[in-house]
Amino acid sequence: MKPGEPTVCRWNDMPADEPMPLLERRRLIGARAMISHVTLRRGCEVPVHAHENEQMSCVLSGRLRMEFPEAGGAPPRRVVLGPGEAVHIPGGVPHGAVAEDETVVLDVFAPPSATTGIDRRP
After folding, report:
1. Cβ density class 89-116: b for 16+ within 10 Å, e for less
2. Could you tell me the pTM of the whole model?
3. What are 78-112's pLDDT values in tens digits?
């Protein structure tokens, strides 16, 4: 491909990584945004984390329980997302998730980065 040309891909043909147990991810990384096709197996727990990237997550299948800790020790805000539902998470906002069923999510990050808050630490 020449720079500036469209890129066409099939998620199933793209390399996958497993940045944490029970989670598989495939990513398409552009100059200003990144989209991740994420499969979370039932019971997958994404610990509370934050990152500079703005994030938008759209649940394609399954159920994902999201948690947003509140300042000052107040109980966290919890929402359950199902197919066709999405959430916008501004950069720097702490969040975590639990897959209540096997769940497939499309995550969009801007700006793109080689790592996000779920990547294993070296």
Report:
1. beeeebbbbbbbeebbbebbbeebeeeb
2. 0.89
3. 999 999 999 999 999 999 999 999 999 999 999 99
